[in-house]
Amino acid sequence: MTLAHDNPTRLTRKPEEAGPMLGVGRNGVYDLIRSGQLRSIRVGRKILIPLSAIDDFLNGSGGDQ
After folding, report:
1. For residues 47 and 2, what is the distance between their CA atoms, to the nearest angstrom?
2. pLDDT, tens digit, for every residue of 12-31?
3. Which residues have C-beta within 8 Å of that of residue 38, sequence separation ≥ 6?
4. How far apart are CA 63 and CA 65, in angstroms?
5. Which end of the chain is less congested by CB atoms within 10 angstroms, N or C?
6. Cβ–Cβ contacts within 10 Å for residue 19, how many?
């Protein structure tokens, strides 16, 4: 599955933005990150989710890569 991007130049999403894409709330996104099911990157204090990680999660690949 390839994601349709609102802004194709942004390769990451904030947890608040990733939640609706995944069908969960912001806290659900943080739970997925903590459990290792969803890859994320930290930039300073900010947590960002790469679009490729969202795509992997939705395809069943999860954060095991």
Report:
1. 22
2. 999 999 999 999 999 999 99
3. 18, 22, 29, 32, 49, 53, 54, 57, 62, 63
4. 6
5. N
6. 19
